[in-house]
């Protein structure tokens, strides 16, 4: 269980998050993301994504305004012995590529 | 005109001065200073962190290559990369000389494009609650439980009972599950019926799983099965052709995420509120650097360093709840289900012995079930079904060939599990009852396959081949018409399951 800050993301840019669950994983991996609000601002939900072993799945959304959101929080929930690769694209450009071997929350600071 | 504007600006600045004088002790300038002071160390840390991430991705790829017998060099390369990773980690740790730098990933978040304000600094510090210091006993327990549950799920591979043969002489489960097969499967059943021994072939296909292999949500939705018997007793010429189709639609899956969303929302809101409070603390702190370092180290603010107390224990508690909800959703996705059971049969499933059984059947209903874990190896599954059934005979029967409507039901308890955690195959024992009762007592109803109650018993054991063998008994407890006798069937899968495709 880890919390990791990644490089920041610019407000209002399109963002794509994908996770590839390794073929050695025995079970599904759950990806749940959401916006950490600033001063209680209401922000949209991001649906959970279930990724089967040896499969890739994710979600696309748009970075919320700087005035409304502090961070994008992405939790990759997996079990001991499972692993996979998280890849984030912002504005179609590679942003973050991380190997995930334990349940991890990636926190992405929203900046103007 | 220009001088008038200039005078206005000067006047504004004049008013602004007293306001700045009353600004909080900390303020954005102090927060910015703390962030700027970290920047030189961060440059070196970021360089090594980037190298580390590249190596970790390489290591990940090499781990796969090392399992490939065609890539003999991969293992040595993997060992070298792993060594380099350990070395880099040591170098990075040496550079992390302050609590702020030790926040995982802090340096990657303070590039020159990041505003140097207390708002932003609070967003960064607020990402870590006090649970990040060390796992609590509760967290350890929750993780251990989740890991055990997930291991049990992972081992619950499809068995031949995943093929839907409900209502036919090949039915094995006391009441069939509504959960679709993972991908595709087949089963062969020997059924002993009153009209002789029959072989029944069944093929089940999950069309969405085949069309959308990466979309697990869609893959849990629907499957279609077709069964057809062939005679083994040498009297094939007397049998009318029979074919059955079964559709299972699992509608519960898409609604499973609501509890997770609620838990996640509560955590995100608490995390945002925590950062809001930290922002206020930083704006008013007398010694911002000291306060920041205290928060970075302890994941909370305290009056001794920041003149205010702000705890993050509520954030930690809600985060742990969200993590538990995630683990639970993964387990529940396979454990609870509610769906639609649809069947269409034409012909006579038991042969020509019982007059009136040859006809067309349409059944539609709701089925549901849930698995309750009993330890890490076994679970008890409860299943139920209520449905409406319409039958129209295709042979002359007393009372004519009018359609007969019936209420159909089923209920069962199944105990299934593994002998050890690593086992992929499961043992299963089930007992249940199914019944059908006509809405009217017409002559046609009395001569139709309705108005009965069956006791169903099932045993499934792993086979050496990696498949399963099942034995089932259907014992009539009540039959208004001719008692159709005990149905015995012996079933094994055809090796078509997704794991071998």
Describe this structure in words.
The complex is a heterodimer of chains A (112) and B (501). Chain A is mainly β. In chain A, a hairpin with a 2-residue loop joins strand 8 and strand 9. Chain B is an alpha+beta fold. Chain B has a twelve-stranded antiparallel barrel with strand order 1-2-3-4-5-6-7-8-9-10-11-12. The radius of gyration of chain B is 34 Å and the shape is elongated. The N terminus and C terminus of chain B are likely disordered.
Sequence-ordered SSE layout with sheet pairings:
The complex is a heterodimer of chains A (112) and B (501).
Chain A: E1 2-5, E2 9-10, E3 14-21, E4 29-37, E5 49-51, E6 55-62, E7 69-77, E8 84-90, E9 93-100, E10 104-111
Chain B: H1 2-21, H2 27-66, H3 74-95, H4 99-102, H5 118-125, H6 137-155, E1 184-193, E2 196-205, H7 207-211, H8 216-219, E3 222-231, E4 243-250, H9 258-284, H10 288-298, H11 303-306, H12 313-335, E5 336-347, E6 359-374, E7 378-393, E8 404-417, E9 427-438, H13 443-446, E10 452-462, E11 468-479, E12 487-493
Antiparallel strand pairs in B: 1-2, 1-12, 2-3, 3-4, 4-5, 5-6, 6-7, 7-8, 8-9, 9-10, 10-11, 11-12
Brief overview:
Chain A is built from no helices and 10 strands.
Strand content of chain B: 25-35%
Number of helical segments of chain A? Answer: 0
Question: What order do the strands of the largest sheet of chain B run in, or round the barrel if closed?
Answer: 1-2-3-4-5-6-7-8-9-10-11-12
Average of per-residue pLDDT values of chain A: 90
Radius of gyration of chain A: 14 Å
User: SSE order of chain A in H/E notation?
Assistant: EEEEEEEEEE
Strand content of chain A: over 45%
Radius of gyration of chain B: 34 Å
The oligomeric state of the chains shown is: heterodimer
Principal-axes geometry of chain A comes out as elongated
Strand tally of chain B: 12
The main sheet of chain A comes to: 6 strands, mixed
